[in-house]
User: Which sequence fits this backbone?
């Protein structure tokens, strides 16, 4: 099969570049998500003139509400407070009226009326309750208006893609509701229905009006139900979906073991991470799956889901099971160049929007990811090591074999033993590793690499995948297959060490280009190599030193690219920024090779960074400027918040420092040379489960070491500490 070169123009940008006209965090600081719906709102809870920003209410990658504004006597209210509750269920906003003038005099003094606005999402609908309270000594009349718009724009339009044609939109009004409808070019009818309780005084195609006469101390409530998912009946009363959303959040927050510490700020970070992850997890027919992140990636991504499951495997293996089953269900069965699919390949992403359905973007089911397939096998093997779930592995084995065949046949087309990528589809991604920006893979002179490109971390993933698959094959009784896979892994390890190591730089080259020339650049990709154990101990030690140099470690975390490299830009997406999930994988690798102090330094940097973030929420990424005394990390303007693999990062960082591993066969929880970072004196882990048994544990700093104590034990499980 012909190998097609990748575009190499240094000025080329991806067709799917996310335009940044203003900062998401500045414009839309409040995020809600439930299932296939998410919303980004301003601090008042409104959506006002979002234009080509992701503000609004979205359902399945389509913006169903592009305008929502609440006014008191024609004026925007005064903001008193705005907060997302700890479990991420309800956005609560406290408002008051401004001074209202009529003919030059104040007819409604400011701070007379208090409005508490409560908003949450549940089962394809957004529910809002406005409670208005008159605190004046006199009766007051006020006019409350709600303005609505629905543009039904595809998320990819909002990201910057232009369309020559769109479908037909219409609005209609009945006594009880306002409806916006859109028939897309894909033949699908999408609708937004807004129900009111009680009925407004006047309802038009874009406005609802209430006239209130409130006595002293009187309260009045208005409930809006904004439904995007199709339904036959009127919405349930506000209290019923509210209770259902609360119950679901409580169940999700109990997944796995609970982690608390002696540090109140660390507890806030861990609680926020768990709540964000619970919000992003969506139930699918195959089980729970963590959607990648809002606003741009609120959908299943193969790579993101797998890495999130790996980061949380020690604390919640049920998530890994859901990820594996979903990805097996969506595994490619045939070749399709339009979406970079080949038999056995694992999904990159899936979308349900109009442009995806029409093929205007290739992401209906898109397979342009070089690493999802080996990572799928890697996750399956580590899931089995954690749980001993032979039944699930037995069900998955045909899919794992198909993934292994893809690695050998399609992943390594030229037969050199390395897995490379190139783009079959003209509309697909140019770069298909986790750094998928068009300019993220290049040589020491700054020239972009041309394909097929073999990334260093992908070879490590393949190595670990084959080692893990060998263990599974042996468990299933196929010893010959296991021996073959072990031999393949060892051959790959030797070839990798020979071709990728750059002695003078102290790192593995970020990639080999299409001519098999190494891209001699110091990058975080090399740090992820340690996560899979392919590096020799001597080179791992050199690499650990390199990663912690000032050029690589910003003080907040390891940069994606060394600061002295060509193309370094601390404000770029992949060429100098800091990604929490990347740092978590690097820390896990450092911990694997025994470099616990380096892992703890990364955890400490991430903890300090989170302390400067709103809600102590680690974003998808932030800028790679060096840390300075008295300053905060610099935010990236269009980063997803929350992002699943960033939310999961604190749990992986804790795993890296504690060296924790759960062995189902020995029914043993192992701590390998546990080391607490300087900001933690004590960690408590509650209900850590292993094959139906569980334990409550306490780890406490003791001089240069760490003591481990069992606080409670339920069932047959033991604890072991290894140095």
Assistant:
């Amino acid at each position: 099969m012909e190998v097609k070169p990748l575009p190499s123009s240094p000025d080329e940008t991806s067709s799917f570049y996310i335009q940044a006209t203003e900062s998401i965090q500045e414009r839309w600081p409040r995020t809600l998500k439930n299932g296939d719906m998410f919303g980004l709102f301003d601090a008042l809870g409104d959506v006002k003139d979002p234009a080509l920003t992701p503000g609004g209410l979205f359902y399945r990658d389509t913006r169903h509400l592009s305008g929502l504004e609440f006014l008191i006597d024609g004026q925007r209210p005064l903001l008193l407070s705005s907060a997302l509750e700890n479990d991420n269920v309800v956005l609560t906003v406290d408002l008051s009226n401004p001074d209202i003038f009529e003919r030059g005099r104040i007819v409604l003094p400011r701070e007379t009326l208090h409005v508490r606005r409560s908003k949450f999402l549940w089962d394809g609908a957004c529910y809002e309750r406005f409670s208005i309270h008159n605190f004046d000594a006199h009766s007051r009349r006020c006019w409350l208006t709600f303005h609505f718009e629905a543009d039904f724009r595809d998320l990819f339009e909002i990201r910057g893609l232009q369309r020559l044609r769109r479908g037909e939109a219409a609005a209609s009004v009945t006594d009880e509701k306002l409806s916006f409808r859109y028939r897309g070019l894909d033949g699908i009818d999408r609708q937004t229905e807004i129900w009111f309780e009680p009925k407004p005084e006047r309802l038009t195609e874009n406005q609802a009006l209430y006239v209130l006469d409130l006595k002293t101390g009187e309260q009045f409530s208005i409930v809006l139900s904004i439904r995007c998912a199709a339904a036959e009946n009127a919405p349930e009363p506000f209290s019923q979906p509210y209770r259902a959303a609360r119950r679901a959040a409580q169940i999700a927050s109990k997944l796995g073991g609970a982690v608390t510490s002696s540090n109140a700020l660390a507890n806030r970070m861990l609680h926020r991470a768990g709540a964000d992850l619970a919000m992003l997890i969506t139930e699918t027919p195959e089980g729970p799956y963590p959607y990648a992140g809002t606003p741009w990636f609120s959908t299943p991504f193969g790579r993101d889901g797998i890495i999130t499951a790996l980061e949380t495997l020690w604390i919640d293996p049920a998530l890994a099971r859901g990820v594996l089953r979903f990805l097996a269900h969506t595994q490619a069965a045939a070749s399709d160049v339009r979406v970079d699919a080949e038999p056995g390949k694992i999904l990159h992403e899936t979308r349900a929007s109009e442009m995806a359905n029409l093929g205007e973007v290739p992401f209906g089911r898109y397979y342009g990811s070089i690493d999802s397939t080996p990572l799928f096998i890697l996750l399956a093997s580590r899931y089995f090591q954690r749980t001993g779930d032979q039944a699930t592995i037995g069900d998955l084995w045909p899919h794992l074999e198909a993934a292994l065949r893809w690695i050998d046949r399609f992943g390594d087309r030229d037969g050199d033993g390395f897995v490379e990528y190139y783009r079959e589809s003209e509309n697909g991604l140019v770069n298909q590793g986790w750094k998928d920006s068009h300019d993220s893979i290049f040589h020491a002179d700054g020239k972009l690499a041309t394909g097929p490109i073999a990334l260093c971390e992908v070879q490590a993933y393949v190595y670990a995948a084959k080692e893990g698959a060998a263990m599974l094959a042996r468990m299933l009784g196929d010893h010959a297959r296991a021996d073959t896979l072990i031999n393949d892994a060892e051959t790959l390890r030797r070839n990798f060490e020979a071709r990728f190591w750059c002695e003078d730089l102290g790192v593995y080259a970020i990639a080999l280009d299409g001519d098999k020339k190494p891209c001699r650049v110091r990058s975080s990709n090399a740090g992820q190599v340690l996560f899979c154990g392919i590096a020799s101990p001597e080179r791992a030690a050199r690499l650990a030193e390199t990663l912690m140099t000032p050029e690589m470690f910003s003080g907040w975390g390891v940069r994606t690219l060394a600061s002295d490299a060509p193309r370094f830009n601390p404000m770029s997406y992949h060429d100098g920024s800091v990604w929490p999930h990347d740092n978590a994988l690097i820390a896990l690798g450092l911990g694997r090779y025994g470099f616990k102090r380096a892992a703890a330094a990364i955890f400490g940097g991430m903890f300090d960074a989170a302390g400067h973030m709103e809600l102590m929420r680690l974003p998808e990424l932030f800028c790679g400027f060096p840390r300075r005394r008295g300053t905060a990390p610099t935010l990236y303007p269009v980063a997803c918040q929350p992002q699943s693999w960033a939310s999961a990062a604190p749990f992986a960082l804790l795993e890296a420092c504690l060296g924790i591993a759960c062995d189902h066969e020995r029914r043993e929880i192992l701590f390998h040379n546990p080391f607490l970072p300087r900001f933690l004196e004590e960690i408590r882990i509650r209900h850590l489960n292993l094959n139906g048994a569980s334990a409550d544990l306490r780890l406490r700093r003791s001089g240069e070491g760490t003591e481990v104590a069992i606080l409670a034990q339920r069932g047959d499980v033991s604890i072991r500490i290894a140095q």
Remarks:
- The radius of gyration is 27 Å.
- The first strand starts at residue 30 and ends at 34.
